[in-house]
Amino acid sequence: MGAPTMEPMCGIVGYVGPRDSQAILLAGLARLEYRGYDSAGIAVIDGAGELDMRKRAGKLQVLRDDLSAHPMPDGTTGIGHTRWATHGGPTDANAHPHLADDDKLAVIHNGIIENFSELKAELLSEGYTFRSETDTEVAAVLLGREYQASGDLVAAFRTVVSRLDGAFTLLAMHRDQPGLVVGARRNSPLVIGLGEGENFLGSDVAAFVEHTRNALAIGQDEIVAITPAGVEVTDFSGAPVEVEPFEVVWDASAAEKGGWSSFMAKEVSEEPEAVANTVRGRLHDGTVTIPELDGMDELFTGIRRIVVIACGTAAYAGQTGKYALEQWTRIPVDVELAHEFRYRDPVIGEDTLVVSISQSGETMDTLMAVKYAREQGAKTLSICNTQGATIPRESDAVIYTHAGPEVAVASTKAFVAQITALYLLALHVARLRGTISVGEQATHVRELEAVPAKIQRVLEEEQTHIEQFSHWMADTQSVLFLGRHVGYPIALEGALKLKEISYIHAEGFAAGELKHGPIALIEPGQPVFVIVPSPRESAELHKKVVSNIQEIRARGARVIAVAEEGDAAVLPFADEVLRIPLAGPLFEPLLAVVPLHIFAMGLATAKGLDVDQPRNLAKSVTVE
Ligand code: AGP
Prior knowledge:
The chain is an alpha/beta fold. The protein has two domains: 7-248, Aminohydrolase, N-terminal nucleophile (Ntn) domain (Glutamine Phosphoribosylpyrophosphate, subunit 1, domain 1); 263-623, Glucose-6-phosphate isomerase like protein, domain 1 (Rossmann fold, 3-Layer(aba) Sandwich). 36% of the residues lie in helices and 23% in strands. The chain is built from 17 helices and 26 strands. The strands form five sheets. Strands 3-2-4-1-10-9-11-14 form an eight-stranded antiparallel beta sheet, with helices on one face. It is globular, with a radius of gyration of 25 Å. The relative contact order is 0.09. Residues 311-314, 358-360, 363, 366, 409-411, 500, 620-621 line the site of 2-deoxy-2-amino glucitol-6-phosphate. 2-deoxy-2-amino glucitol-6-phosphate binds at residues 311-314, 358-360, 363, 366, 409-411, 500, 620-621.
């Protein structure tokens, strides 16, 4: 038996209704392809009552081409899947759906079934056979066995999911029960879309937003059965449960590329809007009030510590936000990688607010850290960009960033929206605790309001320049990024973005750390980006960073400075200067990161790489 293939992050769509489902499933999968893109498949129950299935390794287009070349009968009940596997090859056999019960039953799955080998051994001993290495096929075969016993798909499904350990979203349909798709979730996303005489399931609302903006969020350990006539949600024991309706706040075009060369290009261009939409409705007469946090004043005045947990880019947003949170609220803040947090017995309790940051709201490392924090008695607040996602549902409160759907694997507009949300939180809490004057609040609110137009200027004035020199740098082997204070997490973000989409070695350092080691890396021609603090706002830091630049320049570094307009001190030492508009020191990162996003994209494009779907990565990682 080979290593099992497991599905950390897959796109899932289900449909029942009067329309032929293939086009609906394929369009839904196209919108979900960011979730996984190493194989894809669909199954439908056709007009003759047969179950037809097609699945192919490779991107969704491979499946589309196959279906065009060899059409498959269509039908009004269907499920579809795009996959991203960590173990085992992305082969046709391992792609979903997986069939069972003499190919009358189809199952798709996201997540990991941890006890799949015990279940498989049980089924093998009973004479069942398997065609793939996946844990998913074990669930399919088990469901086939249970269906044979009961003849009731929902009851059989209930029995099966109760036996599964791990994280999963599972969808199933059976040839003998057309017009019915069943689904279940545990620690993995699944939402319902409500149509007129038709209903949908999706791993997120992108799966069906083209058809309906009315959605229902399914809770942990719940089962849903959709038919054209309605939707029934129960817990794993079959007891009915209340589901939470919500309206999707963006329309289908928001998740489309439009005329852009890539989703990443579109999303970088949307950075001004992401900030503007995140502050909208939360600024009132020079103060910040977050309506979602109504009734929680006591919590915010009572806490003594804040711990921010997140992964990757979201963690860098947390590190940036720490400066404002501490400065404005005077509450000590720690920022931790979510996957490290719960393995080191952290000191947290009832007076700790644990703030999680996640674009997707599904990152398993972050979700598990939130659950751990709750178990320890801490209060939890989620900063999230995805409605109906798991992390906000597992938290005491949520501040949604309104960046709109982010499809490219590299997070860009969500990053600036996350920092914005943290600043809003900091100002909200500072107002409640009286740690900031009315005048200061008004100044910061004005700064926040001005950020979108300033980002827009960076895009308009620097994009072409950056694209040109990133083109000349296509053969670069390594790039370093330096920053200080809030420029430090921005340096880390610049390096991560470059690694992830251009596959170039990149490191971010605190500029003050240079002499403690990293300066040994500098040799003639080494490109180094330096985030230069404002000489007006932070004269001392500015001087220090300029002398860092001189030190690396003296050793032959090729310096690319990201500096405030009018800062002439950098000119003699920089090979390129990327200008950002004047802003208060805490607001500079929202501007300084934009050239770094454009640069990463420019370099990856110059290398001919797919910037939206970089190798080995998925949009969010729904396993630990
Ligand atoms: C960012 O460009 C990355 N793809 C990645 O670091 C990401 O930010 C991280 O995995 C966290 O994802 P989340 O915000 O969806 O939790």
